[in-house]
Amino acid sequence: MKNLKFFIIIGIIIVLVTGSLSHFLYSWSGNNYIIGLFAPINESVWEHMKLLFFPMLTYSLFMIFRFKETCPCVTSSFLFGTLTGTWLIPSLYYAYTCILGKNIFLLDIITFIFSVILSFWLTYKLSLSCRLKAYTHLLVGLIFILFICFVIFTYHPPNAKIFRSPTV
User: Fold this and answer.
1) Which of 18, 25, 103, 165 gives 39 a disulfide partner, CB atoms 3.0 to 4.6 angstroms apart?
2) Tens of pLDDT, residues 53-91
3) Are 75 and 137 contacting, i.e. CB atoms less than 8 angstroms apart?
4) 50 or 70: whose pLDDT is higher?
5) Cβ distance 59 to 15 under 8 Å?
6) What is the DSSP string of 39-80?
C-alpha cells in the first residue's frame, strides 16, 4: 500500500494544480460552451465545486484502473472522496461566511486546499478499510447525478443562492 500512498500524494498535487488552473480555463478558452461544462463560468459557489469535482473524478478513473486489482476498495473510496471534497467546498464556504458575514479570498483558497487534502486522506483511509465497498453502486449513482447536475445547471441554474456569484 506504500505505492497507493505515493499516488495519493501525487493526486493531491495534480488536483490542486489542475483545479486552480481550471478556474481560468473558461475565460482562456474564449468562453467555450463545452469547456464551461467542466470549468467554472462564474464566481458562484456551485461553479467553484467543479474545481475539485472534475480533476478528482478524472484522477479517480486513472487510480481505479491502476489499483483495481491490488486494492479492491479503491473505486468506492475515490467516489466517496470526490463527493465529500466537492460538497465540503460549499459547506466550509457558507460556514465561514455565516460567521464572518463576508467572504474572504484567502479563506476561499484555504477551503479549496483543505477540501482536496481531506478528500484524498479519506480516500486513502477508506481504500485500506474497505468500509464502503458495498456502497459502490450507490456512489456511482451519486457521482452520475452530480455530473448531470453540473452539466444542466451550468447554463440553466436554479434560482438559489449557491448558483449566484457572491456579493463582495
Assistant:
1) 25
2) 999 999 999 999 999 888 999 999 999 999 999 999 999
3) no
4) 50
5) yes
6) S-SSS-HHHHHHHHHHHHHHHHHHHHHHHTTT-TTHHHHHHH
CA distance 68 to 46: 31
Place of cell 484502473: 65
Burial of residue 115 (CB within 10 Å: 0-12, 13-18, 19+) is buried
Residues in the chain: 168
What is the C-alpha to C-alpha distance for residues 9 and 82, in angstroms, rounded to an integer?
Answer: 15
Nearest to 96 by CA among 116, 76, 77, 110: 110
5 has pLDDT over 60: yes
Average pLDDT taken over every residue of the chain? 96
Q: Is 93 helix (H, G, I), strand (E, B) or coil?
A: helix
Which of 99, 107, 94 is CA-nearest to residue 166?
Answer: 94
Question: What does the buried/exposed string (b/e) look like for 7-46 if buried means 16 or more CB atoms within 10 Å of the residue's CB?
Answer: bbeebbebbbebbeebbebbeeeeeeeebbbbbbbeebbb
Identify whether the C-beta of residue 128 lies closer than 8 Å to the C-beta of residue 8: no
Is residue 64 within 8 A of residue 74, CB to CB? The reply is yes
